[in-house]
């Protein structure tokens, strides 16, 4: 995706959270499938990865401080999501406070770090429409928690259900490749 967007500098750093497990996305735990929307919105699901956004934001903070950047962007969403605690505005505000307490730039007053969450209060349909206006090629995106080895989305996990609903509500065709059995779901 970074190549397709002509990003000037893109760093890939391996973070393997499978070492800790504790989630259907990092351990040998079944990914829930076929859940109703009202069930998806209840509780914290087994797809929650312990401290994932904290780890991602910590890496982003380290790079931002090294670059002299002050704004850190993360695509969390607290409207159409699966109940992850690290997608809530309260969490983001707490991390931002910590970022300004735990960095040389913050302590010495050289920078005030701001965590930017442009998608946090948008529905999936609103996000899809915004992406269209900005020229996002959704064929390059995948939301699935359990894709096939060929990169086809399962069509029935929580992420696929929310994605499909978002595209339908936006009135936009979803270009994701779904497994044949899921294409009519």
Radius of gyration, whole Å: 18 Å
Averaged pLDDT = 92
- Tell me how many strands there are: 2
**Largest beta sheet, briefly?**
2 strands, parallel
Broad shape:
globular
**Terminal CA distance:** 28 Å
Total domains: 2
Spatial strand arrangement across the major sheet: 1-2
**H/E series:** HHEHHEHH
Residues in β-strands, percent: under 5%
> Helical segment tally?
6
* Percent helix: 25-40%
Textual characterization of the structure:
The chain has 185 residues and is mainly alpha-helical. The protein folds into two domains: 1-122, no CATH class; 123-185, no CATH class. The chain is 33% helix and 3% strand. The protein contains six helices and two strands. Strands 1-2 form a two-stranded parallel sheet. The longest helix is centred in the N-terminal third of the chain and has 16 residues, at 52-67. The two termini are 28 Å apart. The model has no long low-confidence stretch (mean pLDDT 92).
Draw up the topology in text.
Blueprint (H helix, E strand, L loop, with lengths): L36 H4 L11 H16 L3 E3 L15 H13 L2 H4 L6 E3 L7 H11 L23 H13 L15
Parallel strand pairs: 1-2
Helix pairs in contact: 5-6
Give a quick precis of the structure.
The chain is mainly alpha-helical and 185 residues long. The protein contains six helices and two strands, in the order ααβααβαα.
Key traits:
single chain; 185 residues; mainly alpha; 2 domains; two-stranded parallel ribbon; 6 helices; 3% strand
């Amino acid at each position: 995706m970074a190549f397709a967007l002509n990003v000037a500098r893109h760093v890939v750093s391996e973070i393997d959270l499978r070492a800790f497990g504790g989630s259907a996305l990092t351990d040998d735990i079944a990914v829930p499938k076929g859940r109703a929307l009202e069930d998806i919105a209840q509780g914290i699901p087994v797809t929650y990865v312990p401290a994932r956004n904290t780890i991602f934001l910590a890496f982003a903070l380290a790079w931002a401080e090294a670059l002299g950047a002050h704004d850190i962007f993360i695509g969390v969403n607290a409207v159409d999501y699966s109940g992850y605690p690290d997608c809530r505005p309260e969490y983001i505000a707490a991390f931002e406070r910590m970022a300004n307490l735990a960095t040389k730039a913050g302590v010495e007053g050289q920078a005030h770090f701001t965590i930017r969450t442009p998608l946090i209060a948008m529905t999936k349909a609103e996000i899809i429409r915004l992406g269209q206006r900005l020229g996002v090629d959704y064929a390059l995106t995948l939301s699935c928690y359990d894709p096939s080895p060929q990169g086809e989305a399962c069509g029935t996990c929580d992420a696929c259900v929310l994605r499909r609903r978002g595209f339908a509500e936006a009135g936009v065709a979803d270009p994701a490749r779904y497994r044949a059995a899921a294409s009519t779901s």
